[in-house]
Amino acid sequence: IISAYNVQEYLYASVESCLEQIQGEILIINDGSIDNTLAIAKTYEKDRPDVVRVISQVNKGLASARNTGIMNAKYDWCLFLDSDDMLADNGLEKILKAIKDNPDADIISGSFKTFGTSNGIVTLMLNPKLEDFRTGNRIGSSSTVRTSALKAVGGFSPRMVEGYEDLHLWINLLTRGSKIVTIPEIVW
Q1: Which pLDDT tens digit goes with each residue over 87-98?
Q2: Distance in angstroms (rounded) separating the CA atoms of residues 44 and 54
Q3: What's the predicted TM-score (pTM) here?
């Protein structure tokens, strides 16, 4: 699920990183973009209708766009990717292996690279628990979550319009017994 709002300069790289590895469907949720984001997304849908589906909505924010993706998801797991993020080489393969090796997990999250104002690698702590989130977020927003668990908690809170929507979701899932498994290698 790629949420997209006015990201014409990033969307191409994000979608391309997924197309190279896809084993399912790419949902691009256009959240009321006023630049060329929708046109770029529609090009992918036209060229690859077997794997790319575009859903457009009025601008309601990231949480709402992700929830639109959840409600339209056809598969057992949702991988959230911000439109300015890219899957690392073999990132999806690492995620799928973690899912297979951890059938009781509801959240799979991998380490990642940062770019822009800071360039670095964020290595996640091993399988954080609820108490680890008391001081801050312990996993990345581009995590993979079991669709049934997402639907059970109502997805992302649309009230979280100033950020922290992912932290809120992780706490919501963990308080209901979900288990997080982290991948030490970079996946995005």
Answers
A1: 999 999 999 999
A2: 9
A3: 0.94
